[in-house]
Amino acid sequence: MKIIITYGTFDLLHYGHINLLRRAKNMGDYLIVGLSTDYFNQEKGKNSYFNYDERKQLLESIRYVDLVIPENSWEQKIKDLEEYKVDIFVMGDDWKGKFDYLNEFCEVRYISRTPEISTTKIKNELKMITLKNNEMSLRVE
Ligand code: C2G
Predict the structure, then answer these.
(1) Which residue range is the domain that position 91 belongs to?
(2) Residue 10's CB: how many other CB atoms inside 10 A?
(3) pLDDT tens digit string along 41-66?
(4) Top mutation candidate among 11, 44, 69, 113 for ligand 1, by most atoms within 8 Å of CB
(5) Is 43 a domain residue?
């Protein structure tokens, strides 16, 4: 059985994440997702809308995902690769080159991101909609 692993925050789950997870699963038979904990998100400088348990519940409902484990640190990957006997480590190509050191333990693949969507873009566009709605309601009053 070919084991695949990937890591991330997966906040405000969107089709860019799903594209990655589907392609990762199609590389093998079993997909593990190392999901960044709320604590680790702080280390990454990310403030997710959904907390860890909510993001975990969403990921576990995706047909491509077989197991979700907590990602607590940058350093845990080697232990994870050995513990789960991982064959392929895969990330979006925004991380290209950053995890080449894992080549010693398994195949490392970077695949293209879905360019037009991101959690940051969703948050910013929602902020704009809210601002516009507030302006409209002020004009009406
Ligand atoms: N992704 C993608 N297309 C997008 C957005 C994200 O393919 N439009 C991919 C990213 O490249 C990453 C995964 O989806 O491989 C998860 O993205 P994030 O939740 O933003 O993960 P990140 O904060 O990059 O954390 O140790 C690794 C880190 O935990 C990765």
Answers:
(1) 3-113
(2) 25
(3) 999 999 999 999 999 999 999 999 99
(4) 113
(5) yes
**Residue 121 is assigned to a structural domain of this protein:** no
Pocket (CB within 6 angstroms of ligand 1): 6-10, 16-17, 20, 36, 44, 46, 71, 91-92, 94, 113-114, 117-118
DSSP conformation letters of the chain = --EEEEEE---S--HHHHHHHHHHHTTSSEEEEEEEPHHHHHHHT---SS-HHHHHHHHHTSTT--EEEEE--STTHHHHHHHTT-SEEEEEGGGTTTTGGGGGTSEEEEE---TT--HHHHHHHHHHHHHHHHHHHHHH-
pLDDT one-digit tens code per residue, 91-122? 999 999 999 999 999 999 999 999 999 999 99
Residue 123: inside a domain, yes or no?
Answer: no
Structural domain count, the chain = 1
Which CATH number goes with the domain that contains 25? Answer: 3.40.50.620
